[in-house]
Amino acid sequence: MAPKLRVLVSSATAYPPSSPITVNSTSPTPIKTDHFDGEISVYIKDYNGDHQGGDGSVYFSSKGRESMTYGIVVRGHFLEEINADDVVFGNVFEKSVKDHLPWGTSIATKFMYFVDPTLEIDIYADKPWALSPTLACMNYLSLGTSKPEGHVVEEDSLPELKILYEGSSSPPDAPSDEKSHVSARRKWLGNAENRKNTTITSDTQVGLEFCNGLLDFNTLSATLPQPFRLQVPLLKYWDGQPVTYVCQKRHEKGESPVGGDRVYFSVAFEIVDEEAKKALEKRGGKASDLAKDATETGEEHASTEAHVENDDDID
Description:
Blueprint: E1 5-9, E2 19-20, E3 29-32, E4 36-44, H1 57-60, E5 70-78, E6 82-83, E7 87-92, H2 105-115, E8 120-122, E9 129-133, H3 134-137, E10 140-144, H4 157-164, H5 178-189, H6 192-196, E11 199-200, E12 205-212, E13 215-216, E14 221-224, E15 230-233, E16 243-249, E17 263-271, H7 274-282, H8 290-297
Antiparallel strand pairs: 1-2, 1-17, 3-4, 4-5, 5-12, 6-11, 7-9, 7-16, 8-9, 10-12, 13-14, 14-15, 16-17
Domain Domain of unknown function at the cortex: 5-272
Protein name: Domain of unknown function at the cortex 1 domain-containing protein
InterPro entries: Duc1 (IPR013897)
């Protein structure tokens, strides 16, 4: 049986996330930070952890989500005008993970670049991170003047991008089918100059959906598809840190992107299973408690991690 989980999201403080969220709920959870105002839903297939709100069928039965294992859906608006190149999304790590990276890590990293060419990553830093331009890396993106509704985000970004763009290489016309729309948007926003010439205003209503079928919370493993053929036993390499996603402002060169007041919102997947914690302690580690740490310190950053590794394949 998989270790018991809980999911935390931003409260008034964007980072670290400290407020438990009901997973698979049909009602989104409001979030308001210094830089973002909106709502969030988190869906996990076969979820049996804390704060369970259903089986997630309203999400996983939706078109295009049938093979997904989890999804993060956010709707709202940024509280200040932002450049599309300056808002990034991904994982940040409060502690070094280089001592927990087994054989196969370089293959997994190549897979990440294959899936997302806009990715920037430093897994060997004291506080490692992996971040991509938010509007380019989302599985589904909605932009408009009215708040999007529904359990999933319906891709409709290109018409609004035409309005928000101020350069000479206008976004393409929106294809008739959603899959082609997603591909066209990701390709166009994969160009840094296009992002730099696009401004998201504070009254732009944004729908963001990030999901995949690679991470299985039921077995706590990750499987990379062909041509990589890797299966990653995540629990074996767990060092006590949760898997945390952040949406934040791009950091300046020479600065660490981890922590600070640049975060718009964050989501953490945290193991709270006592047996898993005991096994970790036998290996000399200690599990983090994001909610407890945030309550006790207020300003202390929570630990984060998103391992992508394998013990069967060799670099």
